[in-house]
Amino acid sequence: MKTQLLDGRQLGKALTDRIRQELELAGIKPGLAVVLVGDNEASKLYVGSKQKKAQELGMRSFLHRLPADISEDELLGEIEMLSGRDDVHGILVQLPLPSHMDPYRVQQHIPPAKDVDGLNPFNQGALVLGRPTLVPCTPLGILYLLSAYGIPLEGKHAVIVGRSAIVGKPMALLLLEMNASVSVCHSKTKDLGLHTIQADIVVAAVGRPGLIQKTQIKEGATVVDVGQNRLETGRLVGDADLDGLMGHAGFLTPIPGGVGPMTVALLMWNTLLAFLLQEKPKAVRLPMLEGIHERLFGHLNLPLVP
Ligand code: GUN
After folding, report:
1. Total number of domains in the chain
2. Whole-model pTM?
3. What residues contact 98, with CB distance under 8 A and at least 6 apart?
4. What's 84's domain CATH number?
5. How far is the CA of 95 from the centre of ligand 1 (A)?
6. Are strands 229-230 and 236-237 parallel, antiparallel or unpaired?
7. Can you tell me the distance from the alpha carbon of 135 to that of 124, in angstroms, rounded to the nearest whole number?
C-alpha cells in the first residue's frame, strides 16, 4: 500500500502566507508576547521558531525571559502587566514551567481573549461545551492537516493516545465536533494495540519513542505523530515507528515537517483571532478582515467560531 506523507511544512507555509497577506491588506499588527521561564533548551528552540514566524508575518513579537527561580507571584505579575498592554493581543507562557509553579494558576491569569494557547479554564470549558474559540494550536493544526488532505472524519473511529490538556483532551473534543467516534488511551491503558488496531485515525501524543508499531495499526489507517523525542544519538523521533509504518499506513505525518510546523502556523492564526476578539468590542472597523474565517477555513469546514 502506498503511504502518503502529510506535509505540515508546506501546508503551514501556505496558511501563514495567507495570514501575512491578510495582515498586510488590513494594515494591522497583532502582537504576540511569549514568556519563557528558565533555560530549557528545547523550549528555547520552540520559542525561537514562534517568534521568527510572528516577525515574518509582520506581527509585533515580544519575548520575556525570566530566570528559573522567579516566584510564581512574580510570574503572575508579569502576566498582569502584559494583559494590560494594548499592543499585546496574545500571551503564551511556554511549558514546561519549573516544578515550583502551578501551570493551572498561571494559565488562569491569562485573560481568555489573549490566551493563544487555549489553556485558560474558560477556553477549555468552551471547547468542552462545543463552542471552540481559542483552542490549543497543536490539535487545531492536526485537524487542519487532516481536513486539507481530505481525510474523512465523520463517523470514523479516532484513537487518541495521550490525555494532556494541550494535545490529547482538546484533540478528542475537536474530533467529536467533527462527528468522529473517539477513544482516549494513555500511558496506563492495558493492551494499547487492541484499541489502536481498530482505529481509522491514530493520534499519538505520549512522548515515548516506538510506542506505536505497525502491528498495532490497521492497514490504510492515518497515523498522526505528535511525539518529539530526542534520542541519545541526537535524532528527533516521534512516538510511532514511522519507518515500519511506511507502506502500511494510508497517511502518515513525518518528523520533522509534520505536526510541528502546523502548531506554529495555527499559533499565528490564534494571534490574529485574539486580535479580532479584542478589537471588535471596541467597535474598531476592520473591513479588510470581514469574512476572514470563510477565506482561510471555509473550504475545510472546521468547527471554528466566526
Ligand atoms: N511546550 C510544548 N508545546 C507547547 C505549546 O504548544 N505551548 C506552550 N505554551 N508550551 C509548549
Report:
1. 2
2. 0.96
3. 37, 38, 68, 69
4. 3.40.50.10860
5. 5
6. antiparallel
7. 7
50 in active site: yes
Distances (CA, A) of 54 to 20, 29, 50, 65, 267: 9, 10, 6, 17, 9
Shared domain check, 197 and 154: yes
Pocket residues: Cβ below 6 A from ligand 1: 46, 92-95, 117, 137-138, 166, 263
Q: What is the pLDDT of residues 65-102, one digit of tens each?
A: 999 999 999 999 999 999 999 999 999 999 999 999 99
Beta carbons of 135 and 123 less than 8 angstroms apart: yes
CATH number at residue 176: 3.40.50.720
Q: Where are the alpha helices (DSSP H) in the chain?
A: 8-26, 41-56, 72-83, 103-108, 121-128, 137-148, 168-177, 192-196, 242-245, 259-279, 292-297
What is the Cα–Cα distance from 192 to 196, expressed in whole angstroms?
A: 6
Residue pLDDT, tens place only, 210-238: 999 999 999 999 999 999 999 999 899 99
Range of the domain at 215: 137-259
CA 222 to chain centre: 18
